Amino acid sequence: MPAESAPVVPNARPVAGSAAARLPEDDEFYCPPDDFALLPAGSILRARSVELALFGRIPQRVTAWQLLYRTNGIDGGAEAAVTTVALPLGAEPGADRRLLAFQCAIDGVSSRCFPSYALRRGARALGAIPQLELPVIAEALARGWAVTVPDHGGMGGHFGVAREPGYRALDAIRAAMDFAPLGLHPGTSVALWGYSGGGLATAWAAEVAAEYAPELDIVGAVAGSPVGDPAAAFIRLNGSPMAGFSTVCVAALRRAYPALDRALREFGTARFHTLLADAESRTTLALLARFAGKNMDDYSTTGFTDILARPAVRRVLDDIRPGQRAPAMPLLVIQGVHDELIAVADVDGHVRRYREAGAHVRYLRDRLSLHLALLYLGVPATMNWVADRFDGLDLPPAHTETVWSIAWTTREAVGHLRFAALVARVLTGRPITARRGRAGIARTRSQPKWQT
């Protein structure tokens, strides 16, 4: 459905000046038309221009819009979701450019964590991870690419749910293709990228793409620290300084899986449900501070491990483990060997499952970086890998390599200098334009080896 003919909700206007952005539940832009379920997945329901800002306060000089589009939930039912799409300032109109789908680490249930809210000027979302990822999005824009940043958790904040983050990411790509101001078309080359919770969402998108959206030309996907085994992470993080992650993920999963919700209601105390409700209301960093050291054993009539071992709950935990089908496109996976949040063994297993299913995976294990640091230190390496896929260059070998740091090569060193300069531009609100020689324009590509 072309953006020009999209229905318009009365009083839905772009953010202007320093006005505070409204939360999604208070913003009529997020409400789909009554008949939206009759439209194909990826159809644009509504569009508006928006201003982006770092931490809601430092305006970013880029060109951005938001698209409300039709997608599907885990049960196949029609849903509406929002993606934020952007171009570098002064992008050439009608250029045949590339598209990067960036899945943020939403890692929360609260709508303050949604990228469509957290990235906007006037947002009050202190502690929302997407705000920390804005420099990474800016790097893609500086390379001249169009970017789509979907709310892959949906309106219900379904953090950690299987498959449907992939549906939302892929339908956001479809919507972006149909949004004329981006200058895209059905044959546009697309890449997927995400880190941590966004890496998990990217893995789901990569897994379901061949069946769900076979028409998309997805040339590669980068999954940074993609969790690997959420159930193992629940048990490991419970009672740790990072216990907030397991608490909020359980709170999100019970919204999508009735069997899990029933088990939690049966074995959880009243204090336990109060705890989950509290987690649902907080941004990611705020809930980490609030729930540090919390042990769910103290809030249940039986042990938390015992609850997770019950057959109905095990079926849910098995469902949310990625890696059961081979993505059709090549993948780059990066992971810290000593990551304090995501266990390298879980990601090792994730990669092994992909390879056993027949996927082409290059896996880089970094010895020095902790979790958040690897997001930024990995930017040049991951972006260069994506650029090479866009240009149709030969793939690096599909093997595992453990290195001291993925930042320590000549090519990446130059990239870090450029990225540091870009971060300075983001911090000061200077224009984000395509770098000279990096117009992001599609060139004729030779057939990549992975397609032969």
Automatic annotation (TrEMBL):
Annotated Pfam families: LIP
InterPro entries reported for this sequence: AB_hydrolase_fold, Lipase_secreted
Gene3D superfamilies tied to this protein: 1.10.260.130, alpha/beta hydrolase
Domain of life: Bacteria
Classification via SUPFAM superfamilies: alpha/beta-Hydrolases
Identification of the protein by name: Lipase family protein
